[in-house]
């Protein structure tokens, strides 16, 4: 299939896109289990991962996507694998997982045990391989937002007795990391973040208050940290953010529209685009998009669900894009699934065939809307 040129004129964020993670293939699942049982070496596992990533990259190209990912095939989690490889962060088995609707993840957790830094991160090599097999197609790499280290991590108070110092070091580590990915060839980096969706939910904010956390304070600190991390980045590096309400085995955690965080996020976060979940009523309406005050900011509408395999009605999706265009000009809007297909290695409850059909569906709708 010929790739259709559907990129925006004002940026290299693409009219049709994807969030990033893909269902792990049977070959990946088998190899990771073999590695866990010491039946194959780390080198053998990586060789199998290389082959499967090359295969899915080619599949993404055939579908017509202009930004390809590695499907996060080398990761177990969308966030912990990256965060625990920062200097000063350790991963461990906590004994309890993250609670979703009637489901719970494995018990992985992270703790800040030393001063934060970014150095020799293994995902730099992961990106370099993706970039090689992507060829002339844009290699998009996804990492968790810096907010997630504070939101999901435990911080040793003896290491960081002062909160300001923690957030300052966190911003510096990410700034250094962003430059390292750029130096490795990355020109499209996506920050994944669930904390902002929690800050949209009254139920979740009450739980934060019960833990002694002030949601308004978190909004300010996270925004400040993010802007410090992305400041002075190269002009040809595009950075986006995906805001997620939870995605594990086709379940979710939080509900609530973007109104509580729309003004600081859309009006004051200095990035190039937002991937926003809009696949169900839990995400609210498009009214918060009135705070988009820049003509160079892309809004990627996640109107197609990644949680289930049934294809949405094309006309319904087109009508929703038209509704969103009342708040943001059509030329600034883009389309994608609402999330990845496998935020953890277990994956959502659909088949690989259904996954590719979903992505093909997004491409076809985009071609019809932005002719």
Task: Describe the model.
With 371 residues, the chain is of the alpha/beta class. The chain has one domain: TIM Barrel (Alpha-Beta Barrel). It contains twelve helices and 13 strands. The protein has helices at residues 26-36, 42-63, 80-83, 123-134, 147-152, 163-183, 195-198, 202-210, 215-230, 259-268, 314-324, 352-369, and strands spanning 67-68, 87-93, 99-100, 103-104, 108-117, 138-139, 141-144, 153-155, 188-193, 238-243, 273-277, 298-304, 333-337. The strands form four sheets. It has a six-stranded parallel beta sheet with strand order 7-9-10-11-12-13. α1 packs antiparallel against α2, α2 packs across α4 and α6 runs parallel beside α9 (215-230). It is globular and about 55 Å long. It is an enzyme of class 2 (transferase). This is 5-methyltetrahydropteroyltriglutamate--homocysteine S-methyltransferase. Keywords: Methyltransferase, Transferase.
Structural topology:
Blueprint: H1 26-36, H2 42-63, E1 67-68, H3 80-83, E2 87-93, E3 99-100, E4 103-104, E5 108-117, H4 123-134, E6 138-139, E7 141-144, H5 147-152, E8 153-155, H6 163-183, E9 188-193, H7 195-198, H8 202-210, H9 215-230, E10 238-243, H10 259-268, E11 273-277, E12 298-304, H11 314-324, E13 333-337, H12 352-369
Parallel strand pairs: 1-6, 5-8, 7-9, 9-10, 10-11, 11-12, 12-13
Antiparallel strand pairs: 2-5, 3-4
């Amino acid at each position: 299939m010929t790739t259709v040129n559907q990129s925006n004129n004002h940026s290299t964020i693409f009219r049709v896109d994807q969030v990033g993670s893909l269902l792990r293939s049977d070959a990946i699942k088998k190899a990771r289990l073999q590695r866990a049982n010491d039946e194959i070496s780390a080198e053998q596992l990586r060789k199998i991962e290389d082959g499967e990533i090359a295969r899915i990259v080619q599949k993404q190209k055939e579908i017509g996507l202009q930004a390809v990912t590695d499907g996060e095939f080398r990761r177990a989690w969308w966030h912990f694998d990256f965060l625990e490889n920062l200097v000063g962060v350790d991963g461990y088995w906590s004994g309890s997982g993250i609670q979703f609707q009637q489901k719970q993840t494995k018990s992985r957790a992270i703790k800040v045990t030393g001063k934060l830094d970014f150095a020799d991160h293994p995902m730099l090599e992961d990106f370099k391989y993706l970039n090689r097999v992507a060829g002339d197609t844009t290699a998009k790499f996804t990492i968790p937002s810096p907010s997630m280290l504070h939101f999901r991590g435990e911080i040793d108070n003896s290491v960081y007795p002062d909160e300001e110092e923690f957030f300052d070091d966190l911003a510096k580590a990410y700034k250094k990391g962003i430059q390292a990915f750029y130096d490795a060839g990355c020109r499209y980096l996506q920050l994944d973040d669930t904390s902002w969706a929690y800050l949209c939910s009254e139920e979740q904010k009450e739980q934060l208050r019960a833990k002694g956390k002030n949601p308004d304070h978190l909004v300010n600190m996270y925004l400040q940290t993010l802007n410090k991390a992305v400041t002075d980045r190269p002009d040809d590096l595009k950075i986006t953010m995906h805001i997620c309400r939870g995605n594990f085995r086709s379940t979710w955690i939080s509900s609530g529209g973007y109104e509580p965080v729309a003004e600081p996020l859309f009006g004051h976060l200095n990035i190039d685009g937002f991937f926003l979940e809009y696949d169900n009523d839990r995400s609210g309406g498009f009214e918060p998009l009135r705070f988009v005050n820049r003509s160079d900011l892309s809004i990627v509408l996640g109107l197609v669900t990644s949680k289930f395999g049934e294809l949405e009605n094309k006309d319904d999706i087109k009508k929703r894009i038209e509704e969103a265009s009342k708040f943001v000009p059509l030329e600034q809007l883009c389309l994608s699934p609402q999330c990845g297909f496998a935020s953890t290695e277990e994956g959502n409850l659909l088949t690989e065939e259904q996954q590719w059909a979903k992505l093909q569906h997004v491409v076809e709708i985009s071609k019809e809307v932005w002719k």
